[in-house]
Amino acid sequence: MRSTHESSPREGGYQDAFVPNQDHPGANPNHNGLLPSHNEKAHHADSTLFRIDTAGESGRSGIHPLLFLKVCFRSTCTLSMLVNVLWPFVPPAIVLHFARPDLHVWVFALNYIAMVPSANLLGFAGGELAKKLPKVLGVLLETTLSSVVEIVLFMVLIKNDSFVVIQAAILGSILANLLLCLGLCFFLGGFGREEQVFHEAVSEVGSGLLLVAGFGLLIPSAFNAAVLSKATAPLPEALLNEYTLTISRATAVLLLVAFLMYLFYNLHSHHSIFDEVLEKDEHRDEDREEEKRRAKLTLVECFIAIAVSLAFVCMSAVFLVQEIEHIVERGVPDNFMGLILVPLVEKAAEHLTAIDEAWDNQINFALFHCLGPSIQTALLNAPLVVIVGWGLGKDMGLNFEIFMIVTVVLSILVVGNFLRDGKSNYLEGGLCVLIYVIIAVTTWYYPEVHEAGHAPAHGSAAHGS
Predict the structure, then answer these.
(1) What one-character-per-residue DSSP string does 270-307 give?
(2) Which of 234, 280, 357, 383 is in Cβ range 3.0-4.6 Å of 366 for a Cys bridge?
């Protein structure tokens, strides 16, 4: 939940060090809670990294252990606080990995559960830090923190040559954000409201970038499938795999360029537009007064909470990935594991944050937290894992299963159509969630790669799981 400024003491832990005195010409001594003028916003954006008079101020500095634990446990909403009751699963999950590594199902299950409260704390701490930063930078920082978890998962998977699971997890992450998370935001945010209205700058840029990302991810798979289907003079399989891998690597580099353009657009050339949109959203927060009174973390406590949660969530992620092979052997399809199970738990923090924002009528913030992670996965994480694999001499490519990449592209088109009119309601949200459930059920019965007759771009005969 987000809210605008509050009349609280300045947080000496960071403001005195980084922010000029509030008497400087750019400050507004008669700040009355109304939207600041464009010139004021521009001045603050240029003069300081941290925001003044925001809901992120704690009125404290340093660290206060008991209050720190209390604030982290209470989090920002009831749903997030309920998730924190899962923290007792975290120590046993870590201990069991070292004490009884032979109990594969138990290690997997405990670490799967343990990732949820750890990711929840990471999302909360990232949100607390984001409220001390310019709005767009803060939202992008929250998204990037969750991307760290995904990147760690991908790096462990690529070390284990689990290419099939990586490819499924890339697409599954996009599907979870676009269909499940955005669908729940529209569905729950639409209760008690005829519709929710969001700004076209957020929806158009997001849906446009996702279309470009979907096109880029589709091209290597389409090339491979088209050449395989040629009735005359087909390429030898080894040569086809080599060409597909080369196209994948070139595409990965270009998608990274697109991501840099996206960052420049959001943080530099058009940041004032998004800042204004998000600031108006803060004023629409239905829990604004309650959020003002809520105890906040100091800057130091934010960094501590982020470090602790990152350590726990990365350990659980590594332990979880190491058990995937044994879980697949017990009958769970590796495509289902990557497309559904892994993205659900690694995206838990983002989903809780976005759903809470939609419930409080901050639909533009919710869109940022749904579309932003999908864009980062498609334009940053997926190309990054291909390039890292390239550097390690592993044939990791973007030759996805046609069924999976088609479901992602169709999902992007469906969501883009819902975003086109700048309005959402519970019907559109419910339909998105139903589409996600249909994909999940179908994925469970989808045959393994070697059974489907698919020629993998990575050139490995095994699943990689």
Answers:
(1) SHHHHHHHHHHHHHT-TTHHHHHHS----HHHHHHHHH
(2) 357
Q: What is the pLDDT of residue 240?
A: 87
Rounded Cα distance between 207 and 418, Å, is 10
* Phi, psi torsion values for 397, nearest 5 degrees: -130, -175
- Sorted by sequence, the CB contacts under 8 Å of residue 65 that are 6+ apart come out as none
The total domain count for the chain is 1
Decide: 90 and 316 in contact? Cβ < 8 Å: yes
Helix (H) or strand (E) holding 217: helix 200-228
Q: What percent of the chain is predicted at pLDDT more than 70?
A: 77
**Distances from the Cα of 66 to the Cα of 80, 123, 126, 380, angstroms:** 19, 20, 20, 38
| CA distance linking residue 383 with residue 375, whole number of Å | 12
Q: Is residue 361 part of a domain?
A: yes
* 306-364 pLDDT tens trace: 999 888 988 888 898 888 888 888 888 888 888 898 888 877 777 887 888 888 888 88
- DSSP 3-state helix, strand, coil percentages of the chain (rounded to 5)? 70, 0, 30
CA distances for 76 relative to 108, 223, 255, angstroms = 29, 47, 35
Q: Taking the CB of residue 430, how many other CB atoms lie within 10 A of it?
A: 15
Do the domain assignments include residue 170?
A: yes
Q: Assign residue 295 the CATH number of its domain.
A: 1.20.1420.30
Q: Is 33 helix (H, G, I), strand (E, B) or coil?
A: coil
Domain assignment present for residue 354? The answer is yes
In-domain check, residue 104? yes
**Residues in the chain, how many?**
465
CA 368, distance to chain mean position in Å, is: 10
Q: What pLDDT, on a 0 to 100 scale, did the predictor assign at position 433?
A: 94
Could you tell me if 382 and 375 are in contact, meaning their C-beta atoms sit under 8 angstroms apart? no
Q: Annotate 217-234 with b (16+ C-beta within 10 A) or e (fewer).
A: bbbbbbbbbeeeeeeeee
Question: In angstroms, rounded to a whole number, what is the distance separating the alpha carbons of residues 339 and 337?
Answer: 6
Q: Domain of residue 409: give its range.
A: 65-445
Q: Which helix (H) or strand (E) element contains residue 424? A: strand 423-424
